Amino acid sequence: MSDLQTVLDGRWADVRNDVRAQMGELKLTPDPDASTEQYRAEIADAVRTLAESRRPHQGFDPAYGGDGDVGGVVAAFQMLGHGDLSLLVKAGVQWGLFGGALAALGTQRHHDAHLRDMMDGTLLGCFAMTETGHGSDVQHLRTTATYDADTGEFVVHTPEPGARKDYIGGAARDATMAAVFAQLVTRGETHGVHCFLVPIRTADGDAQPGVTISDCGVKAGLNGVDNGRLVFDSVRVPREALLNRYADVSPDGTYSSDITNETRRFFTMLGTLVRGRISVAGGAASAAEKALTLATRYGATRRQFSNPATGEEVVVLDYLVHQRKLLPAIATSYALHFAQNDLVGQMHELQKPGAVPDEERQRDLETRAAGIKAIGTWHATRTIQMCREACGGAGYLAENLLPALKADTDVFTTFEGDNTVLLQLVAKTLLSDYGRRVGKLDLRGKVRFGADLVAGTVLEKTGARSVLNRGDVRSRDYQRWLLAQREEHLIASGAQRMRKALAPGADQFAIFNGAQDHLLAAARAHVDRIVFDAFAAVADQHPLLGRVLALHGLSVIEGDRAWFVEHGYLTAARTKTVATAINALCGELRPHARELVDGFGIPQNWLDCPLLDGERTPTTEADGQHADTLTAVG
Questions:
Q1: Would you tell me how many other CB atoms lie within 10 Å of the CB of residue 212?
Q2: Looking at residues 91-113, what average pLDDT do you find?
Q3: What class does this enzyme belong to in the EC scheme (predicted)?
């Protein structure tokens, strides 16, 4: 194991190594020639193998045979992203979504009845939240669960076509029970969205009476996952089917909850399921790491065009433009990996057995999870496409794994929350926190705050700000200052714009709608800063990481250089210094490219493909630095 891998693996290094040992022997790469049914059967078998390893048990209550290591199970799940993403998603549905709803929203009666079977994989479930007509707007789902006090049952019903449960992983083939999210109705009053356990198949595999199951069919990717649609025609389930940790209905139909505000209760319920969103971010990060490993190792052997001075063909990774493609993306993958480690650690402390509920920390976790999921999955989509292009025609062949990575991760940007909606949620939280901060200032503080806003506007208009701040662009402190200034500036100016919505008679929707681009920029700036901070916290643990962090920070700044110039933080000439520094760092890190991607710790068996046939074993120079042995490809 390399020193870089040790730093990247972090707190749950032992868990990651166990997964490498347990699952690394499996050939977890999709067969492009397999039929959909064959592929689904292979993934179902792999899920059983995963259950037999008892790794999924790790995150559940020790009273039911688990280990209580919530963070460990998410770290293990992330490792599956280096293998087959259909397995990652199928496992995520079973133990992350269905199992997470059962564990987090249910009480002892549900745990006693189902938790062990769910952990063992003998009870296969699905997570029926999304509806055809309501994807991101979960609070207004149309499916109903109406309590019948005469029979002591809830009647689960799909009232119109738009209320059909859609895209439900596991529904088409394997799941026998669904965690169904529906509007709870009792005594003629609706109490908002709640979750119910609803059997959808008999022991023989047939649909339960009143349940219509259909297959979503072949998708752009993830065809090892049996996505399906569910329609309920007055399906009756016992009163105890309500997952009642936060609300309950008595036999006579009386509704009760310790959280009286319906919206707060709804978001509290959803907050307990944040594990799924964090897991998606981790899976996307792993897929991007795999693509970068393939493209970098190929680029270190593929030769193209001759050097006039030597007459020899040049390895493509020695071209600056190729380094510019891969090395900044590697740096950002490192940054996101460390941010993910922090996120998992934060989640573990809040959800481990015996943890004391902390509403403020929970809100911060949800905000971070939403932001990192959005930025991380977009990074994966861009990076995998770039890696495909960097490998030319070879990257387009299914046998070389990149097309499957591209197809399988495309949906990550919209499931477990559409990225644009997630960033809006981040922005909303940032504005609320900002308002509280300003509201706590005394009169003198508010006067100073107003003066600072005026002064900032003057500096921006005159360009004086960029003259006042001329730090070394490679300096960690200077990069952090720029990212923090951008974040604070965007949040403060966004808050100023949104103040108009508080005026009497204001068209609040129009004001919010007109500021959406600004709010999304503020949210992205916030995530960029916390990702940078996560990397900076560990950057001194390995000699290479300081330069990798600098490359990541400069790449973020270069990507938004127009903003920094427009708002007076950089001059146009200064941005050229940023570009020059990126080029220099790419050259410095080029000899370590293989070492950097090997740090991701991906089992070789999950990388084997013809793309890498041109490799020879890397050599090590006397000074201990990694050097690639370069060979021609065919």
A1: 14
A2: 95
A3: oxidoreductase
